Amino acid sequence: MNTILIGIAGGTGSGKTTLTRQLKEHFGPRVTVIGHDSYYRAQPGTTYEYRVAQNYDHPDAFETDLLVQHLQELKAGRPVECPVYSFSDYDRTDETVTVSPSAVIIVEGVLIFQDPALRDMLDIRIFVETDADVRILRRALRDVEERGRTLESVVQQYLTTVKPMHEQFVEPTRKHADLVVLEGGHNRVALDMIVQRIENHLNQP
């Protein structure tokens, strides 16, 4: 199988997930999606209070080596057992989800361009860029409505880790992108271009 890896990166709340979801809805099972968030490190034997206080926006928070290994397996045509992360518990669960290989694999995450080994695996690198004010509002709504966080905790986390880590680790990776997409999935022109590029690959003999 001739597999291409497409990386979709960008700051929190930039629209990465929306863009990824639209591509998945368009192509269905012909495209496999795997998220860097699933690879947050397990923290066995720690208290909830300890886990809440950790910096989840630093590259060290992720087990990126495992993601690289899984992508190598998928490119070789073998399924993998992807970890499942609980945002409400701030920890990896004991469950896994079977991810099957396909001709197109989309890797989504804030920091996927930061690690050289992961970045170099990606055939197409897309960076989603959105105004910082819009991103924090989107993150606040998501974390309160979907992840059971309080608004106070969201603001505290944003100011102490999300914003400084974005400036230190995320924004500098923009230079590695082949394509910068403004407003993520809301950018119909960019979405159509990406769809066409994937169609061209899928239609190869």
Write up what this structure looks like.
The structure is a single chain. With 205 residues, this protein is of the alpha/beta class. It is built from 7 helices and 7 strands; from the N terminus they run E-H-E-H-H-E-E-E-H-E-H-H-E-H. It has helices at 16-27, 48-52, 64-75, 116-121, 132-146, 151-170, 188-202, and strands at 4-10, 31-35, 80-86, 91-99, 104-108, 124-129, 179-182. A 5-stranded parallel beta sheet has the order 2-5-1-6-7, covered by helices on one side. A two-stranded antiparallel ribbon has the order 3-4. A hairpin with a 4-residue loop joins strand 3 (80-86) and strand 4 (91-99). Helix 5 (132-146) packs across helix 6. The longest helix has 20 residues, at 151-170. The termini are close together. 31% of the residues are buried.
